[in-house]
Amino acid sequence: MSYVLGIDTSTTATKAILVAEDGAVAGVAAATYGFETPHPLWSEQDPELWPEATGEATRHVLAETGVDPKDIAAVGLTGQMHGMVVLDGDNRPLRPAILWNDQRTAAECDEIRERVGVQHLIEVTGNDAIPGFTAPKILWTRNHEPDVFEHTRTVLLPKDFVRYKLTGGLATDRAGAAGTLLFDHRERDWSAEIVETLEIPSSWLPQTHEGPDITGPVGAHGASLTGLVEGTPVVAGGGDQSASAVGTGAVDPGVVTVSLGTSGVVFAATDTPVIDPRGRVHAFPHAVPHRWHLMGVMLSAAGSLQWLRDALAPDTKFDQFVALAADVPPGADGLVFLPYLSGERTPHVDPLARGAFVGLTTRHGLAHMVRAVLEGVAYGLRDGLDLMEAAGVEHPAEVRISGGGARSSLWRTIVATVLETEVTTVTTTEGAAYGAALLAAVGAGWFSSAAEGAAAWIHITGRTAVDDHSIERYRAGHRIYRDLYPALKPSFEDLSGRG
Prior knowledge:
It is globular, with a radius of gyration of 22 Å. It has 17 helices and 23 strands. It has a 7-stranded mixed sheet, sandwiched between helices. Strands 3-2-1-5-14-13 form a 6-stranded mixed sheet, with helices on both faces. It is an alpha+beta fold. It is 38% helix and 21% strand. The longest helix has 26 residues, at 366-391. The mean pLDDT is 95.
């Protein structure tokens, strides 16, 4: 039997997943690592951690399954988006990578808006300038580390540094490249205009490819690193959210996905470029050729629940912790949670936004706080879906849900009811890595398209219905939730010292 290998370079671990020709997961392995926060709002990582972890995870899954590396038809790559890896002329990292969740570049975002013009920036790239994106990080390096900027010859995304170590080639996928803010959304390639306006050398940017395209073979170094056979094709893959959508079957219009991981994502595939005129939801090319997508991103979804558990009940298992909320009625007896613990991206592009419980009284306990967190995250997801519908996406008949938070039947019901849409789970639970493997299968010629592969491999396993009795309660709760951010925004600025 032949296999494909999906590799996901995330913020805290690299996952390697082997998938057989019938779509069955033969094995999964992961290698973990940390990241640094040398200053408030900063987030950095040593790029060399990723290929080392790729080698460890790949060797582990090969040993665990007993699969002969000669039987691996292709490798697909995915990983954290927006990070900046700067290389010198010998392709060596010049500094730690600045990650997607780094918030240091507010001034550079303003600089980009001033140089390009906000509306023109959104029109060309599909997005407003936000601190997480790559372009502001490049400008920050020029403004604050001129020696690093002077010696830079290549800028890569995290997974593409892994690609370089595997193949020796410099390349990227179009879904991931769009997250740099240097991409022409409609043309699906680098925007010469934006790059020139920001005075970034175009020679620093690698060639772009569609997700299933083969970008090169595993080289001698990559084979030594991972145990893979030299010459094994490596496809472009996609940024983690696009690949995750592929892995749940959201490759054609009409399928919307929700990810309840550390961050929260609402994702809708489209067959034409669609943008929100104010840039409140992200618009990127999909990892699938001739498809685009809209994406709303909350920076702290299941991460909010983990924070609450770690702060107030660290010895409680997550399923027991979530179960506390089951005895609290919808609306949490008037308690509302704003999940802006790490700032926010959708619908408020605001790194200074802060989390808050509003409405606390003496009758509220820990169970109410848990319920409020589950509901607050669902309200944030509804914000993203509402913006997509305003941009022209039809209200979905079904939302496919994934991520650690999706294991909770209570949370699935809350999300279904707040979104007023049935929520489904699918056969695949490995997210972006599985999507990368499916793109590798297309590149290997197993399928003619990602849609054909998704139809063969991905099937619905469960359905969670809307709780009709709670719809009005949640509509009212969402209205209150939406009113709180503008009311508290001046206080958030004062608390950050920016007011």
